[in-house]
Specification:
By secondary structure, the chain is an alpha+beta fold. Helix content is 38%, strand content 15%. Strands 2, 3, 4, 5, 6, 7, 8, 9, 10 and 11 form a 10-stranded mixed beta sheet that branches. A 5-stranded mixed beta sheet has the order 1-12-13-15-14, covered by helices on one side. The model has no long low-confidence stretch (mean pLDDT 84).
Length: 588
């Protein structure tokens, strides 16, 4: 029996109101290309957004084939992996195994070449399809016996024991820092800085714990959990176990910027003059440590490594020019305050050392012309750059060739040793400075040097500013080894406190490198890889703590240094002496 014929309206609606997506696509493109109706009108009539319809037209022009309107073949209706293990999943659930236990069992069987591996989510989907309800939450003692992480004791100095014993540690090289710690009496830094402490973890023990993790170059502070059972790390700190990540977060939050400055000041008071800080000339720079969380307090700053602005912590750092060690840091800077941070460093240096810095070297964006005037008024020599504004570019281009003079830089290894210079005096914010245009340095544009040192030779000024790149190298090393950019850590360690730890740790690495022949100029990463990253066997007796370093290629360098010559009495070990030997136990 024939069905009733459709009306003309219904037939017209089959074309004007298509039911399937592919027909709608066909009718819309036909209206646009054949009927030449406007794109916006076609999109509105057929239910597309203007942008999606333009994309559809673009795709059709790239593939104007009738197959374009053919619906794709349906995907697979079967799930072979689930089907292969469905019976196993149901059998294990009837024995009250959880989805995680079932998934773990399937992975083990798959590794042996049997069955398929399924995720806990896939296992849950099978059980839901078969009508199984979720298992009720069980107590730990009701769960099947399985191997898991150990539960270590809570850090407590009162539980620290020096009973005779022998154990192995992955952090054997960490004890190489103990002689300098004792010699400089760095425990006194915690007391004079008024760092917080408790009966369980006194201030000195907390400082040693935090610095131990920084010296060992742990990338994320939550990774301390992988070393929480290492007895050597705990022995270095003078605790029964190293504090866990929750303590690090809580402890750093109690330290304000005032205590951070005290740490930096006391650290420098305890240093032997000329040992780490070997000059009074400093390289200054900012570093933006990227922040990947969501916090309205963190502001956007330019991040050089990503060439864009993003939420980050702005850190100001000062580096000694000769010793190449960091001597000042500040991560407690808000937008609008960064240009005046150079004056805060000057005030800090004068308060700690009783004198002004001998020379400051920095780039053009570190501070303002007004602050340059303040530095000049205090009699502090500086070297910086000026931005190449359009007016300065025109001035450089207008100079006659005879106005330039050729000089020679006393840097034999430099490729561009004979630049051209042009000197003049300029007045900025009411003060007169010496300005030097430097061309032929390997850059397309001339460099504009600005200084308040009228009598220093231009060759020396140019060479000194070039050495400012040392702080860039040190920042790169700090990012790679001390992990300045590790702000996505699960531990909310206060960045300002972390930067003060970086200053102290970099100084300790400089002291250690100076003891090892051939490593005096090495970066911290190199010293760690070659010297510090060394396991050991530790033996505690009634009179000493003997650290027997395992044999490594660079071990003879350690034994040839003074580190293995004289045992050192360690106060937090009840004055038992630290003796560093080889793995065979032969004393050096």
């Amino acid at each position: 029996m024939n069905s009733k014929p459709k009306s003309l309206t219904a037939c017209r609606d089959l074309f004007l109101k298509p039911g399937s997506p592919r027909q709608r696509m066909y009718e819309a493109l036909r209206a646009y290309y054949v009927e030449e109706r406007p794109s916006a009108q076609v999109a509105r009539d057929f239910g597309y957004s203007p942008g999606s319809f333009r994309v559809l037209c673009h795709d059709f022009r790239r593939n104007p084939d009738p197959q374009f309107f053919v619906a794709p073949k349906p995907g697979p209706q079967a799930q072979p992996k689930k089907s292969a293990v469905r019976e196993t999943v149901l059998r294990m659930r009837k024995q009250n195994f959880s989805i995680y236990e079932i998934s773990s069992h399937l992975k083990e069987q798959h590794a042996k070449g049997t069955g398929a591996s399924l995720s806990p989510t896939a296992v849950g989907e099978i059980l839901k399809e078969e009508g199984f309800a979720p298992l009720p939450r069980r107590l730990d003692e009701e769960r099947p016996v399985a191997i898991g992480p150990t539960i270590e004791s809570t850090a407590d100095a009162r539980a620290f024991s020096l009973e005779p014993r022998t154990f192995s540690t992955q952090c054997g090289g960490l004890f190489l820092f103990v002689p300098d710690w004792v010699r400089l009496n760095l425990d006194d830094v915690a007391a004079k800085s008024q760092l917080p402490g408790s009966k369980m973890i006194p201030a000195a023990h907390a400082l040693r714990s935090c610095l131990a993790l920084k010296l060992w170059g742990i990338e994320r502070h939550n990774r301390v959990m992988s070393l929480v059972a290492d007895q050597g790390l705990a022995l270095f700190a003078g605790l029964n176990v190293i504090p866990k990540k929750s303590f690090l977060s809580e402890y750093s939050s109690r330290i304000t910027h005032r205590e951070t400055l005290k740490i930096l000041a006391e650290w420098q008071h305890h240093l032997v003059p000329g040992e780490v800080l070997k000059s009074d000339s400093f390289n200054l720079d900012f570093h933006s440590a990227p922040f990947f969380g969501k916090d309205e307090i963190v502001q956007d700053h330019f991040v050089a490594m990503r060439s864009r602005r993003q939420p980050s912590i702005l850190v100001f750092l000062a580096q000694d020019e000769d010793g190449r060690a960091f001597c000042y840091s500040n991560a407690d800077i808000r937008k609008g305050e960064e240009r005046g941070e150079i004056l805060n460093f000057v005030a800090f240096w004068k308060k700690v050392h009783g004198k002004l810095p001998g020379e400051l070297v920095f780039d053009s964006q570190l501070t303002t012309y007004a602050n340059l005037g303040k530095l000049d008024g205090m009699g502090i020599p500086f070297i910086t750059l000026r931005r190449r504004t359009p007016s300065i570019r025109k001035e450089i281009e207008a100079l006659a060739p005879s106005a330039w003079r050729r000089i020679e830089l006393d840097v034999p290894t430099r490729e561009y040793r004979h630049p051209r210079i042009f000197e003049q005096q300029v007045t900025l914010v009411g003060r007169t400075y010496r300005q030097i245009f430097v061309a032929d340095l390997g850059h397309e544009d001339a460099t504009v040097l600005l200084t308040n040192q009228p009598s220093v030779r231009a060759e020396k000024l140019i060479t000194r500013y070039a050495r400012r790149m040392l702080i860039e190298n040190a920042l790169s090393d700090a990012v790679r080894f001390f992990h300045m950019n590790a702000l996505s850590s699960a531990v909310g360690l206060k960045v300002d406190f972390d930067m003060s730890l970086l200053v102290v740790a970099s100084g300790l690495y400089k002291l250690l490198a100076g003891r090892i022949r051939g490593y005096s100029d090495a970066q911290a990463r190199t010293v760690f890889d070659d010297i510090v990253n060394m396991p050991a066997d530790v033996t505690i007796t009634d009179k000493e703590v003997r650290v027997e370093l395992h044999r490594r290629a660079h071990l003879p360098l350690i034994l040839a240094s003074e580190l293995a010559d004289k045992p050192v009495a360690v106060p937090w070990w009840d004055n038992r002496k630290l003796r560093i030997t080889t793995h065979r136990g032969a004393e050096s």
